[in-house]
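Ticket #4471: structure output looks truncated?

Reporter: J.K.
Steps to reproduce: submitted the chain below (624 residues) through the standard prediction queue, then opened the result file.
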Amino acid sequence: MNKEISIILIIALSLFFTEKIYANELTTPSGISISDVERFVDDYAHEYIGETTAGASIVILKDNKVVLSKGYGYGDIENQIKINPNTAVFEWGSVSKLFVWVSVMQLVEQGKIDLDEDINRYLPKGFLTKLTYDDPITMLDLMNHTAGFEENIFDTGYANEYRVKSLEEGLKIAEPNQVYRPGKVVAYSNYSTSLAAYIVQLISEQDFNEYVDEHIFQKLGILDSTSYLSLGRNEQITKNKVNGYELIEEGDFKLSTPYYMSMYPSGEINGTAPDLAKFAMALMPQSENENVLFEDENTLVTMLSQSYAINENVPGIAHGFWEYDGKFKGLTHGGNTVSFSSNFHIVPEENFAVIILTNQASESDISYGLTKELVGEKEIDEVKLADLPNSQITEGTYLTTRRMKSGFLNLYYYLLPLTVKSLNANEIEVSLVGMKANYVQTYPNVYKMTKGSTMFIPTNVLYFSIEDGEVKQISTSISDYLPLDKNIFWLTISAVLFIYCLVYFIASPFVLIVISILNRRRKKTSIKIRKWVYLLNIVGTAFIVNIILLVIRMLSNSDRGYFEVFPQIVANYVLTILSVVFIIFILVNWKKATLIKLQRAIYLLSIVTIVILIFLLITWQFYS
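Returned output as attached by the reporter:
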């Protein structure tokens, strides 16, 4: 009997301790057991590696420990060289910006930077030459991307290292126009971040890359990464760098180009996932009392606190970090270059982090999709539909605030707008570049993503600012959107007119050749006006060829200096002057020539067509 009681007692105790151990088992924020996380990641990655993603290096941290560090796919597809997570070097892209903001906060802690001070106090006099507003730009504006700068892709990144300038010179060459009032809209800006890094450089009296190396890399023991890749000084890092790729179609990858930046603080760090994991660990609750990056622990607390939000129910920005509305509050930042993609995500209250580096441009299936699975999504509370505005008010077409408003590339953004369509009283469908996602309203004018393309995960919450019954702005933690500022009818007419001019001036040389041959056979006397009309049509064709070549060059490689396209801008001016000259000669000879009605109609059509073309080029800023 005693033996039976003992057995029952042992079984009871084992069940008790098993339940206790299970209850205390470490998990990801989404609830995946840490003991099972490798299998989960393996299964997830297997679906995409080699299909839509070339390769990846993934590190997961829990309670200041690495619980997974693994490579997937190939760093060199052609030679079938697998990714070694310990040595494989990737371009971190815009994740590099986080090192700028840590540097700024280190100087804030030392009393050398005031986040609310006008940055002109720290810059050389007259450094910024394209400011539109008198409102001061603060360091906090730079951190929140609310300084008001337009996007400028020229002279930001290069495919060749020899074209890289110093940080100071790069900022002067690529200075964008200020197109928004400071503090009013979030317009993600590489320029803002590099400008902040330049201020760090001026105050510390060290090149920014040297500052980062001494005050961040060395403190964290980061040895296999560099904030400023130079082939002559970082041979081992260059040797370990994996190839970057572009996805052509599923399972087919094209070798991409390197990426070098004059404004390198915004996206030039090259390094390993374990090194980036060391940085993540330093930003979370420490196992020891000492904080590696800051003297005062409150500085880190301040840095990870919200610095900007448009509404209390939407994620905002935390001193350069993007807030993420997950199961627990996340702080994150993505990165993209022409060949690589990355995602950095920490959940401080869970002491959890996930680092994903991929060697493929514009990758989101693993970098964002896997992260979402690991950090989880906050459950959507039930809401009373009667208390919420009807979603039909959100319908419309919108343009990102992160766009070029000056120069011919402004046209590009009108070709790829964000569209919002109401599905029912409480749900909308958002579309961008052919990708779609559904959002449901959780608070008045606040919409949370429920399903759709992984490219929308970074903007999984949208807030619609409504004034006088109309949407004035869509806010996200990354970049805002504004209603289309041109009439749809005018945009359609512009497209139709340009297609007409395109067809006309492509066809006209062949038509003119045929007419010329027929006139010679018929031995018709050539008249002066005909020569000027022929020349005018040739100029029109030259316009079209110049524009097509410009488009092809930008599509083949957008990482260019403005000087590369400047000759084609000058060509538009030259062709315009020639057009005016030839039109004048045509009009001068008009009364002298004996023309039949058909000839008059054709000649007049040529004049009208080239005038329309020049008007469109002026409208869409092809002269700047």
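Triage note (M.O.): checked the attachment and the full token line is present. The CA atoms of residues 392 and 556 lie 39 Å apart.
Status: closed, working as intended.
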